[in-house]
Amino acid sequence: MRFLPLIFCAFLIACSSQSSHEKKKEKVVATIDETSSKEETPKTTIDSLSHISTIEAASDSVQSFDILYKNVHDIDLRNTISLSLISKDSFDLAKSVTLSIQPSSEDPFHMREQDSTVIVTLRTKEKVILEGTTDYMEDQKELLSVGKYFPDWNAFTINIDYWEWSDTKLYNAMTGEELMTLVEAPLRSPNGTHMIAIRPDGYEVVTYFQLIKYEEGKFRVMEETQFSEWMPGVEPEEIKWVNDSTVFLKIQYAKEFWNEDGSYNTDYKYLKMVVKGIDKEESLEAQLYITNSEHIPFNAFFGQFVQYDFFREENTSYPVTYDGIKLASREDWKRVNFPSVHEALPTLTDITVKDQETDSVAVTTFLLDEEKSIQLKFVEHKGIWRFHGTEEQSLTPHKDYEFLKFLAAFTSDSTYQKQHLSENLKKKTWGDDDQQTEFSIDTSSWEYLPLSEAVNPVFSLPYDVESDKRRLYFSGIDNGIYVEYVFVKIDGEWVLTEWVDFSN
User: Fold this and answer.
1) Can you tell me the distance from the alpha carbon of 85 to that of 62, in angstroms, rounded to the nearest whole number?
2) Secondary structure (3-state) at 97
3) Handedness of CA 88, 90, 91, 95 (dihedral sign)
4) pLDDT by residue (tens digit) across 410-426?
5) Is the pTM for the entire model greater than 0.70?
6) Domain boundary assignment for the chain
7) Which of 228, 183, 229 is nearest to 50 (CA)?
8) 19, 126, 191, 267: most buried by Cβ count inside 10 Å?
9) What is the maximum span of the chain, computed from C-alpha positions, in angstroms?
C-alpha cells in the first residue's frame, strides 16, 4: 500500500501534540450487556472510537458500534455492509482467500514500464502508451507504474504517484478505455463479484473507501465515502478477504493512528466487514472456511488446495490417510509435512493441458530429491471437490520413471543440463514492442537454470506417458509468473526444445 511521507506527517503531529494533550478528556459512559447472546448487538452511548480502546471483543463474539459506520458524507451504510469488532484470535485464525486467475499462454495482454510511462499490449494486440502529465501541482509529473491484470474481469490497473498523493486507475483490457479511478489498488473477492479499495489518509486522518460490484461485464460503485473514526493498517496482509462476503482488517482509531515520533501505532484493533446480499451470515467458523464454491474448475481448486493450509483442512473427506498418517479431523493436518509451494505452482503434463471434466482426479506429487511420489485422490460430489487420501510409492515403478530421472538430473546438474539442449532450441517471450516474439538460442553460451528447488515438489495431472513430449510449466500464485519448458525425446534422449516466458 502506498502512503504519504512520514517526515511531513511527523511534523504535523509535533505541531499539534501539545494542544491535543491539553484538551480535557470527555467523560464517556459505555453500557454493554455482557449477558446478551453473541447474536445481539451491544448497546452503547460511545460517540468516539478513541474512547473504546479498553473494550475488546471476546474471542467467541463480535461487537458492533454505531461509530464504526461514521463517515464524512453521513451516508447510511448499514444496508450495504455490516461492521463489527472481532478479537485478535479470530483475525489470526482466518487465512486470506484469493483465487489467482492466470491468463492462458495465448493471451497477448502484456504491460511494462518505461521511464514514467506504461506500455500496454491489449488483448486485441493493439498497443497503448499511457503517459503521466506535467501539469499537476507545481509541474510535478505523474509517475506511472504497472498494476495488476485481471483476465476474468477483462481489466487491468495502473498505479499513479503524484507529488503528495497516489491513486489507481482501472482500464478495459480489450479497448484501453479508462473505467474508473480507485483510491488504492483493488482487493478482489474470492469469487470475483466484488472488490474494495481502501486507504488511510495521514493528513486528513480519514479512510478513503470504495466498494465496487462486478456484474454482467460492468463495474458499479456500490459505496464510496471516507470513514472518519478508524483507519486500516498499511501493509497488504493487514486487510484480507476470508470468504466471498467477508473482509477482516487490522485497524487503528483515527486519533491514535500516529505515535508522537511519527511512526505508525501498531496497537491494533480488529474489524470484520461483511458485504450484504452475497450470502447469509454464518457462524464465525463457517465464515472462515466457505471457499470451495460449487462447480469450481478442478485446476483452480487444486491451486488453492496446495497453497492454503486451511483450504486443505476444510476440503478433506475425513477420515483419510496422507503419506501414512491417519487424518481424522482438521487438527491432524498439523502432523503432515505437506510440500510447500510459494511463488509458482510447478506442473508436469504432456504437451496439452485441459481442465479436468470428470468427477474423480488423481494428482501425483513427485518428490524428485527423495525419489518418491505421492498420489492424491480427489472426488467431486454435488459440485464440491474433496480430498480422499493418498497412495505412496517409489519413483522406480512409475511408468514415467525414465523422464522423471532425466528431470531430476536436468534441474540439478549444470553440465547435464547443457548436454541436453536441442540444437534448435527456441525461446518465446515478450519483445521490446510488447508483442510475442520467438528466437533461437545459442546453446554454446547457455547459462545454467538452477531449477532443483523449483521442481521439488512437482505435480502432475493425468497425462499420456507414452507421448514423446513433456511440458513443465510454472503458473504464478497471486503474481504474473508464467514459464514453461517443453521437452522432446529425440533419438532416445530427452532434450529441451522450447522455453516460454510470458511473465508480467
Assistant:
1) 6
2) coil
3) positive
4) 999 999 999 999 999 99
5) no
6) 1-94+221-291, 100-189, 292-504
7) 229
8) 191
9) 87
